[in-house]
Design goal:
Blueprint: H1 3-9, H2 23-32, E1 46-51, H3 52-62, H4 66-69, H5 89-103, H6 111-118, E2 129-136, H7 141-160, E3 164-168, H8 175-182, E4 188-197
Antiparallel strand pairs: 1-2, 2-4, 3-4
Helix pairs in contact: 1-7
């Protein structure tokens, strides 16, 4: 697959088939993604890949807690959305949420149904593989950006294997549980989770795509001769 096709076809998949992903493929993706750039070549990422009985154990631990702990969970170690959310970012976030729930026929006022779908995050949307991206607490903004680049590279390499992904910062809301599950030392924290597997092409929630802002709203070009 050409890299242009990988970029164009990547989306946040929210319904996966139960088909297993072989460990050698996951290892290859995680290893090759380390070619992502990082400031000073620090490579400030740690990755925990989980599958099989291990992933089922984590889901089983969280499942009975969904009815009482959503949406706040255990609190967060970092703020995902900047307060206050200003325009145009607020409208973009609102629109993508509306498109998601419209795809499965859940109206805005039906909060129980929305929470039920949100809880699917903690089932990895049925994906057979979970990835957790972990960082040093003392690292700064540049290293946060580096890990984001690594995560994107993982997602694009997955497309080369016919796989799909869903980055899941939702796992930050259960960082205490993840920390205990992964046995993280005190100097590390959870940056994001990611579901990895084969998409379910028949699932309605996989049939929409989030819109992108027009080029002229975020880019300028000058000095070109042709």
């Amino acid at each position: 697959m050409h890299v242009r096709d990988a970029v164009a076809s990547r989306y946040s998949c929210r319904a996966f088939l139960p088909k297993p992903v072989p460990e050698p493929i996951v290892r290859e993706i995680v290893e090759q993604a380390a070619r992502a750039p990082s400031a000073g070549n620090m490579q400030p990422w740690y990755v925990h890949a989980v599958a099989g009985e291990r992933i089922e154990a984590l889901k089983a631990e969280l499942r009975p807690r969904m009815a009482t702990e959503l949406p706040k969970g255990e609190g967060v170690e970092y703020t995902i959305y900047p307060p206050p959310m200003i325009e145009p970012y607020k409208e973009r976030a609102f629109t993508v949420g509306e498109l998601l729930y419209q795809s499965i026929g859940v109206p805005r006022e039906d909060k129980p149904a929305r929470y039920k779908q949100y809880a699917r995050n903690y089932e990895f949307f049925g994906a057979p593989v979970a990835l957790f991206f972990v960082r040093e607490k003392v690292h700064g903004a540049a290293q946060w950006a580096d890990i984001g680049g690594y995560l994107q590279t993982v997602a694009l390499l997955a497309r080369g294997h016919g796989l799909h992904t869903c980055p899941q910062q939702a796992w930050v809301s259960f960082h205490k549980t993840v920390r205990s599950f992964l046995k993280l030392p005190d100097n590390l924290m959870v940056y994001s989770g990611m579901a990895l597997g084969y998409e379910d092409p028949d699932a309605p929630i996989n049939r929409w795509r989030s819109p992108r802002a027009p080029l002229e709203t975020f880019a300028t070009f000058s000095g070109f001769t042709s």
